[in-house]
Amino acid sequence: MEAAPSLVLACRDLRKVYRMGEVDVVALDGVDFALGRGELLVLVGVSGSGKSTLLNILGGLDVPSDGRVFFEGTELTGADDELLTRYRRKHVGFVFQFYNLVSSLTARENVALVTDIADDPLEPEEALSLVGLGDRLDHFPAQLSGGEQQRVAIARAVAKRPSVLLCDEPTGALDFKTGILVLDVIERVNRELRTATAVITHNAPIAEMADRVVTLSDGRVQSERRVEHRAPASSLRW
Length: 238
Description:
Blueprint: E1 7-20, E2 23-36, E3 40-44, H1 51-58, E4 66-71, E5 74-75, H2 81-91, E6 92-95, H3 107-115, H4 124-130, H5 146-158, E7 164-168, H6 176-193, E8 196-201, E9 212-217, E10 220-226
Parallel strand pairs: 3-8, 3-9, 6-7, 7-8
Antiparallel strand pairs: 1-2, 1-4, 4-5, 9-10
């Protein structure tokens, strides 16, 4: 029997409430969550279910209204801005639906923005080779397809060797075939670097590439299941 992965991220009874004028909007309502080392987890749920809010809190981009968040056993709840900035810079890689590349920089230079401030980074060339772009190092974003730009964004996220990779709808702006290529890269990074990876998606079939699937609804964990046989990204269809 395979041992459970050691925990990288965990939260307990997490709540997030936004004040919208005179109304309180509950985005998360008592969420317990965990992500293990080397695990690939997929978060599914309809728009407004709390997926992005949860990922933003786990990544140190937002703070909870209540509850506790832990990174490798250290509590982040109540951390000051300096500690959260250090946590994001050293330990977390983000991939969003839109690539957020600097248009005036080449692929290599976009990745170097991260490697220049990391403690033990991959070389930009190595990170870009990992995502299949070793021959596009000196191309600018305008010279790359949407899928290639997203792969540069993934290379940038993983070049600092983060403990955690958080992906919010990484295929949302891409067509099906290009989306599969991007998911294949995420799968490869997870497998080869053993990066704890969480992927948000509204495409239910993507869940089959995960080790574990968590479904959110109305700010709560509706269900959680372990995938017995993880499907390769290349086999997915939606």
